[in-house]
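Record type: monomer structure entry
Structure origin: computed from sequence
Chain ID: A
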Amino acid sequence: MMDKESWGLSTSIDMTGDAELIRSEEAIRTFTQELVELIDMKTYGPCHVVKFGDDPAVTGYSMFQLIEASNISAHFADATNRLYLDVFSCKSYDPMVVLEFTKKFFKGSDAKISWVNRK
């Protein structure tokens, strides 16, 4: 979905997910590794997954994975069972593949996706 004049593609996905999965560090790590493989990227360094937040409205895990083409990041909000995923890469990938995989993995509903070609 990246046009020829773009430097990169940025995709954002917001959705409600399964409460157990979005609260599981192991599930988040597995999801990240499987997503990297699915969209044919290469990791650069370890996947960082940290749970934090003093305010219960925003407490949850955050994930950050560098990839050779840029990065993948997400926040998982415990209070609302929502996840907010961002994929940015200068290597082309299909945002709809990312959406469908994320929905399936996290048993998602109420998904919203947007993407933009970065110039």
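Annotation 1: The CA atoms of residues 52 and 59 lie 6 Å apart.
Annotation 2: Residues 25-38 form the longest helix (14 residues).
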